[in-house]
Amino acid sequence: MIITRRRLLVTSAAGAAGFALAPAWAAPPLKEKATYKVGFAQTESNNPWRLAETASMQAEAKKLGYQLVYTDAAGSAAKQASDVNSMIAQGVDAIFLPPREDKPLVPVIKAAAKAGIPVFLIDRDVDHSMAKPGEDYVTFIGSNFVEEGQRVAAWLAKAVDGKAKIIELEGTTGSSPANDRKKGFDEAIKQWPGMTILASQSGDFARDKGRQVAETLLQAHPDATAIYAHNDEMALGAIAALEAAGKKPGKDVMVVSIDGEKDAVQAIIDGKLGCTCECNPRFGPKAFSTMKDYAAGKSIPPYIKNDDNFYDSTNAKEVLASAF
Ligand code: AHR
After folding, report:
1. Does residue 179 line the site of ligand 1, with CB under 6 A?
2. What is the pLDDT of residues 29-71, one digit of tens each?
3. Can you list the domains of the chain with their CATH numbers?
4. Where are the strands (E) in the chain, listed by range?
5. For ligand 1, mutation pick of 151, 179, 205 (most atoms within 8 Å of CB)
C-alpha cells in the first residue's frame, strides 16, 4: 500500500498576519506498536568502527525484540540505494541509514518517505540542499564532524608549537564526515600561520588505501612533519608507510586522527599516534529510543548530537580496554 505523504500547512509570519500560508512536507508518521520490522542499510563492514556500529544496532534490536533487516552495501552507494529500495519493497516500518555519500542516497530517502516509511539518518548526513530533516527524513543522529576536525587541529597545533607541514588523508569523497572533518581542520589551522597543508588526498577511510596514498604523498613531500588522517584506519596505514620509508611516526612525523578504535589507542600508547578524537559508533540505544519517541508523537529535533571523547597519551591506557 502506498501512503501519500502528509502535507502540512505551516503558518508563516505573513500567514499569522493573515496574508499567506506556507506549505511544508512532513516526514511520514510511525505507529506505536509492540514490535517493529526495521531496516538498517550499512554502508560497508571493512573496519572496526563499522563493525562496532553494526553490533550496537543488532544488540539493541535484539534487546527490544524487533526484527532487524540488515544489509551491507560493501562500499557501494549504488548497492546501498538498492538495499534501501528492497527494504521499501519488504514494507519495513522504519529505516536506519548511514548514507555512504551525501548525494546519491537522496532519491531513495525520498522514495521511502513517499512510501510512508520514516528514515532516520545515523552517523552520516546528506546534502541539505537536496533533502531536509523533518521533511524527507526524521532526523540526523551523529557526531559533529566539523568539531572533530577542529579538536584535532588544536591538539596538533599545541603539540608542534604551531609549526607543521601537513599531509591530509581524506575520507570517502562526498561523504559528510570527509567534507566536515576537512572543513573543521583546514579552517582551524588558519589561526597558526606556521601550519600549512602540503597535500590532501582521499584514502577512502580504508587502512590499505591510506597506506598507499601516504606512501605516494610522502615521496612527493619528504619534508612533511605531520599527517592528519580523517580516520584511524588511514592513520594506521600512514604509520606503516612512514615506517616503510624509514621514518619514526610520532617523532619524525606527528600523526593525528579520528575514531578512537582499539588499534589507534594502542598506537598512542606505543608513541606512534599523537591523538585520536573519538567518533562514537555505538548508535543502537540512541537510534532506537529516538524511533520510539517519534512513534509516541514526541517532537524530534532535526539534529541529535553524539558527544565524543578525546584520547592522547594522558588517558590512552585507561580507555584501551573499553575501546572498540
Ligand atoms: O561515518 C563515520 C566514519 O566512517 C568513521 O570515522 C569511519 O571510520 C567510518 O568508515
Report:
1. no
2. 999 999 999 999 999 999 999 999 999 999 999 999 999 999 9
3. 5-27+34-142+282-306 (3.40.50.2300), 145-279 (3.40.50.2300)
4. 7-10, 22-25, 37-42, 67-72, 94-97, 119-122, 140-142, 164-170, 195-202, 226-229, 254-259, 275-278, 303-305, 310-311
5. 205
